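Design request, C-alpha cells follow.
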C-alpha cells in the first residue's frame, strides 16, 4: 500500500466489529424465527455474509442472505434483486453496507422495501463517516469516523485476495 494509506482497522478489529454487530442484531431480534440480511453489492454483501456466519453460530433464529445491486449514479431507484421482495412481508430485514457516507445508498436500499409491510427494517454498516446528505442513521455500526470530505475510506476484505483492512486515503 502507498504511504498515503492510514490503516484504521486491521483484520482482527474488523472481525471484532462484525461480531459485535451480530450480537446486537441477536439482542434486538431474539424472539424472531427468521431474519433477512440484505447485503448491498458489492462490499455490503461481503459484510452481510460475515454477519450471517456469526449469527448462524450464536442465534436461535434462522438468517437468510439476500442481495441488492443498486445503480448509485441514478437519480431514481434502480435496483436488481435476487429475491421476490414480497417474500420479505412481515419479516425483519437488516440492510447492510460497508461504509455510510452520504446516506444515498441506504436511502435507495430502503426504497427496495417501500411497498412491503415489514416487521422491522434496520441498518448495519462497518464504517459510519458522518457526512450525511440524506437523513440516515445506522442501527448497528462498527465504528464512526469523523473525516474530511476529500478523504476516502476503503474497505478491503480477504475475498479480494488481500488481507482485510479499512484504510483512510
Amino acid at each position: 500500500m502507498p504511504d498515503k494509506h492510514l490503516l484504521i482497522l486491521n483484520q482482527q478489529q474488523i472481525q471484532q466489529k462484525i461480531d459485535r454487530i451480530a450480537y446486537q442484531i441477536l439482542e434486538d431480534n431474539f424472539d424472531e424465527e427468521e431474519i433477512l440480511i440484505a447485503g448491498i453489492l458489492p462490499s455490503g454483501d461481503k459484510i452481510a455474509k460475515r454477519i450471517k456466519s456469526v449469527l448462524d453460530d450464536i442465534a436461535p433464529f434462522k438468517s437468510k442472505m439476500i442481495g441488492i445491486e443498486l445503480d448509485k449514479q441514478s437519480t431514481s431507484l434502480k435496483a436488481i434483486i435476487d429475491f421476490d421482495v414480497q417474500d420479505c412481508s412481515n419479516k425483519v430485514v437488516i440492510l447492510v453496507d460497508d461504509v455510510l457516507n452520504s446516506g444515498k445508498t441506504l436511502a435507495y436500499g430502503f426504497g427496495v422495501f417501500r411497498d412491503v409491510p415489514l416487521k422491522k427494517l434496520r441498518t448495519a454498516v462497518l464504517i459510519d463517516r458522518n457526512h450525511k446528505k440524506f437523513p440516515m442513521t445506522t442501527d448497528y455500526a462498527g465504528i464512526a469516523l469523523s473525516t474530511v470530505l476529500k478523504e476516502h475510506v476503503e474497505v478491503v476484505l480477504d475475498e479480494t485476495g488481500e488481507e482485510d483492512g479499512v484504510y483512510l486515503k
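Comment from the thread starter after seeing the answer: thanks! Strands lie at 6-10, 34-40, 62-70, 79-81, 92-100, 120-128, 140-144, 153-156, 165-168.
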